[in-house]
Amino acid sequence: MKFLKASTLALLTLASITPAQAHPHVWVAARSEVVFGADGKILGVRHAWEFDEMYSAFAVQGLGKDGKPPTREELAPLAKTNAESLAEFDYFTFAKQNSAKVAFKPAQDVYLEANDKKIVTLHFFVPLETPVAAGKPFSFQVYDPTYFVAFAFEKKDPVKLAQAPAGCSVSLVEPAPLVATDNRKLSEAFFQNMSPGADFGVKLATRAIVACP
Hints:
This protein has 213 residues and is α+β, with helices and mostly antiparallel strands.
């Protein structure tokens, strides 16, 4: 499936080291920040995606010295590749205002870092093509439509507001539980045969809603 293969490439062709199993193959713990401008408009969303141990081990393979985690500089080429690949999929970030899709420009401030346990986190900012006034509800979800990658917001401070006008708030709406028929679909064969444009991941995606007076 072209989308799945491309999605895999966006995350360092992890399929080449992942044994056959049911989806997902990669797990990401996400934190996000909705960034406002001085005029009170929403400028974009800043992400921090912490990857699972298996992905992280693959990402840092051959990097670092004397057993230490690699530096940002060593991970910079990898960060650039990730950002360029993820652009094809809107950075797995799907935003709306008043039910209308909001588009993003190319990612900025992209970097990867590894902590003392060599767990890798991808940081980047995706600016809106056109900043939007915050007077109308703005929402976004982070997910992979093919569910090759499973995104989940961190429990502590999952979504913050940066430089928001007074009175703005953010709330999270959890997805409804999958019905039995959907649970039965969660096999590798189902995802391999998924039609182009299918959007399974949205069923499992939390929605962040920003409201301002």
